[in-house]
Specification:
globular; 42% helix; seven-stranded parallel β-sheet; six-stranded parallel β-sheet
C-alpha cells in the first residue's frame, strides 16, 4: 500500500497509550506517515514507536491521579478535556489533515475532528466496548444520576458547535462506526451481543518491550510471583505490608513487588530476603518468567496475565477492575480478593490454591492460545489499512 497519513488522537492516560503503541509501530514500519496527538506526558512512548508527536495539553488529572469517585464528575472531566483540546488539534490538523484518523475510546475530540473534516475514522479501544442493550442496561442508569441532564446538554451543544456529524450524545460516545478492540474477546462482557460488523477483537498487541528494561529470574527461584497494582492505584502501603507478611520467606517463592511512584519503600518496614521492591518494573518481561500474578485487574494487567498464561489473584481497586476480576474468575484463571479482605492469610492461601490447581493451569494455557489466534498487532494494522481504501 502507498504511503498514507494516519493520525492517532490519543489519551494522556498511560494505560490507554501502551495497548496500542505496537500498532503504531507496525504502521510506521509499513511505510505510513503516522502522527500521534497527545499530551507531552506520554511523548516518550509515542516517539519511541516512530510516530511524529503532535502536542496538545490535557486537563485530566493524570499527574496526581486525583480522579473523582462520582461517575458524572468523571464523565465531565473527559468532556471538558475534549472541549478544550479540540481547538488545539484543529490548529494542527486543519493545516495537515490525515487520510485516516484513529482515536482512543476516551478521545471525543478525535472523533469530532474526523467527523468535522469528513475523514474516515477508526476507534482503538484498550478496554471493552458497548454491546447491544448497553444503553438500556448501563447508560440509562448513569443518565439518571444527579448532574446527568446538564452533562448531556453540554455534550450536545458542543457536538453541534464542533461540526460533528453524529449529534446524538449516546451514539457519539458509545457507538463508533468502526472499532478495533485491543483486548481478547474472552474479557468482553456480553460478547455475544457485540456487533461484530462494527467491532473486531484482535487481542492484546504486545511487542518488543526491551526498551523498558529487562529482568532476570534468580537461578535459585523455584517459583516467581509478581505483585503489581498498575500505575494509578499504587499508594496502598497497608496492602503491600500484608503482601510482605503473606509471601515473605514463603518456601520456594521469589517475589517482585511493584509499589508505584507514590509509595516510598521505607514505609514498608523490613523487607524479607526473598522479596525485591521497586517503584516500577518491566511487567511483561517479569510475567513471561513468572508463575503467579497479584494484579489490580486493570485491562492492561489482565491482558498481560492472559497473554503469558500466568494464574492470577485479582485485587481490584476501582473503575472497571471489579468487573474484570469477576471475568477472570469466571474464565477459571484467577481468584478474587477485595482489598478489605486481603489479609496475609487470605493472600497466601489464594496463591497456593491458584498455583496448585491443574484446572487453572489448563484454562490459562487454553485462553493464551485463543488470545494469540486473534491476530494481535498485525491484524490490527491490516484492518486499519483496509479502512484506508
Amino acid at each position: 500500500m502507498s504511503r498514507r497519513h494516519i493520525a492517532m488522537i490519543g489519551s494522556p492516560i498511560v494505560s490507554h497509550v501502551l495497548p496500542g503503541i505496537e500498532v503504531i509501530r507496525e504502521l510506521v514500519a509499513r511505510g505510513h506517515r503516522v502522527t500521534y496527538a497527545d499530551d507531552p506526558v506520554v511523548a516518550e512512548q509515542i516517539t519511541a514507536a516512530g510516530a511524529e508527536f503532535v502536542p496538545w495539553t490535557t486537563t485530566l488529572p493524570v499527574a496526581d491521579n486525583s480522579w473523582p469517585t462520582d461517575p458524572i464528575s468523571v464523565m465531565n472531566l473527559f468532556l471538558d478535556d475534549a472541549m478544550q483540546s479540540l481547538p488545539q488539534l484543529r490548529a494542527h490538523y486543519d493545516e495537515d489533515p490525515a487520510d485516516l484518523y484513529l482515536y482512543d475510546i476516551g478521545s471525543y475530540a478525535g472523533r469530532a475532528l474526523a467527523e468535522a473534516q469528513g475523514r474516515p475514522l477508526v476507534q482503538l479501544s484498550p478496554t471493552y466496548v458497548a454491546w447491544k442493550g448497553y444503553q438500556e442496561e448501563v447508560g440509562d442508569v448513569l443518565m439518571g444520576l444527579p448532574g446527568a441532564d446538564a452533562y448531556r446538554e453540554k455534550f450536545a451543544s458542543w457536538l453541534a458547535a464542533a461540526g460533528a456529524r453524529t449529534l446524538d450524545v449516546d451514539a457519539f460516545s458509545g457507538m463508533p462506526d468502526r472499532s478495533i478492540a485491543l483486548i481478547t474477546k474472552a474479557m468482553q462482557p456480553h460478547a455475544d451481543r457485540v456487533d461484530t460488523d462494527v467491532v473486531t477483537f484482535v487481542g492484546p498487541c504486545l511487542g518488543d518491550r526491551s526498551g523498558q528494561g529487562g529482568w532476570s529470574r534468580p537461578a535459585d527461584a523455584e517459583n516467581v510471583l509478581l505483585v503489581s497494582l498498575g500505575s494509578a492505584y499504587t499508594h496502598q502501603v497497608e496492602f503491600y505490608r500484608r503482601c510482605l507478611t503473606a509471601f515473605g520467606d514463603l518456601k520456594g517463592w521469589h517475589v517482585v513487588l511493584q509499589i508505584g511512584r507514590q509509595t516510598d519503600a521505607a514505609e514498608l518496614g523490613e523487607i524479607p530476603a526473598n522479596v525485591e521492591v521497586h517503584n516500577w518494573v518491566p511487567q511483561l518481561a517479569i510475567l513471561e518468567q513468572a508463575d503467579a500474578f497479584v494484579t489490580h485487574a486493570g485491562m492492561g494487567g489482565s491482558s498481560e496475565g492472559l497473554y503469558t498464561g500466568v494464574p492470577m489473584i485479582a485485587v481490584p481497586q476501582g473503575a472497571e477492575q471489579f468487573g474484570n476480576a469477576d471475568k477472570l474468575v469466571e474464565l477459571g484463571v484467577a481468584r478474587r480478593i477485595d482489598t478489605d479482605d486481603a489479609t496475609a492469610e487470605a493472600l497466601r492461601s489464594a496463591l497456593l490454591e491458584v498455583t496448585g490447581d491443574p484446572e487453572v493451569r489448563r484454562r490459562s494455557a487454553e485462553l493464551r492460545a485463543q488470545l494469540l489466534a486473534e491476530g494481535g498487532t498485525r491484524r490490527a494494522a491490516d484492518l486499519i489499512e483496509n479502512a484506508l481504501d
